[in-house]
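Re-run requested by the PI after the first attempt was lost when the workstation crashed. Everything re-entered from the original request form. Ligand of interest: iron/sulfur cluster.
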Amino acid sequence: MKEVVIISGKGGTGKTSLTASFAVLEGVDTVVADCDVDAADLHLLLEPEVIQTDDFFSGKMAVIDGDKCTNCGLCAEKCRFDALHFLQGQYRVDPLNCEGCGYCSLVCPEHAIFMEEQNVGVWRISNTKAGNIMVDAALGIGAENSGKLVAKVKQEAKKIANQKGIDLILVDGSPGIGCPVISSLSGADFVVLVTEPTLSGLHDLKRVYELVKQFKISAGCIINKFDINRLVSEQIRAFLEEKQILHIASLPYDESLIQALTMGQTIVEYNHNELSRTVRESWHQVRQILNNDKK
Ligand code: SF4
Ligand code: SF4
């Protein structure tokens, strides 16, 4: 089984619309994992029909049993995170400060504190309009541990691929270089770096490439809207050459992409213009690399 991760150093580079195009081109032969759990939006283009939803629990938080608590204040005195306060006649836990260390539950003389697992989001399995099975997730508002939720999405995607005998997982990775993207990259066979020709785009590409390098994963790069700034596009190409990163394609700016997105379609469904053709060729190239890798 092969795993391709599409990432960019920052949001807004066209990473998700490219992933959706690749998913449409591959159809039933791939399981799609939307690992951008902080702002999942692959569903907007793939029109999934949800077939399973599950809660995701991660981390613990202290809970005080008001019937047992005698308001002695020992827990608040011992908590190093300032997460226990006397409010409206009783000690209460501040959910934003509680780190779930469990110390208060050990020191409470009345055994009035227990640790409760936190429901931090949901993950789902769906059938998409392109015939893929998709796993995605949504992190609850203000919830942390998105790296763990990303790991869960990937784990479920792999399980489905194994069960169905599907040999490809297409991962829409998280933006940035933090914990979620590290989790997205873990176990990948090939990474598609998506960038755009701006100085911040180049800067973020360099940062995310450093991360990919640490994982020793083969990578290729797609420069999106290369013609809006040919000078920076050339600088990106020079960087790719210097680091021996495969330049998969440079995609032209094309207003029909906006029209396609407005209609909830990928560019490869919407028309057969140069942009659509280049996206198809890009995916063909990545597929070829994966196929050669099997031999
Ligand atoms: S230590 Fe236990 S009994 Fe004392 S205030 Fe805290 S929860 Fe209540
Ligand atoms: S679990 Fe730890 S952080 Fe949370 S309230 Fe208890 S002592 Fe404080």
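Saved to the shared folder this time. The CA atoms of residues 118 and 183 lie 20 Å apart.
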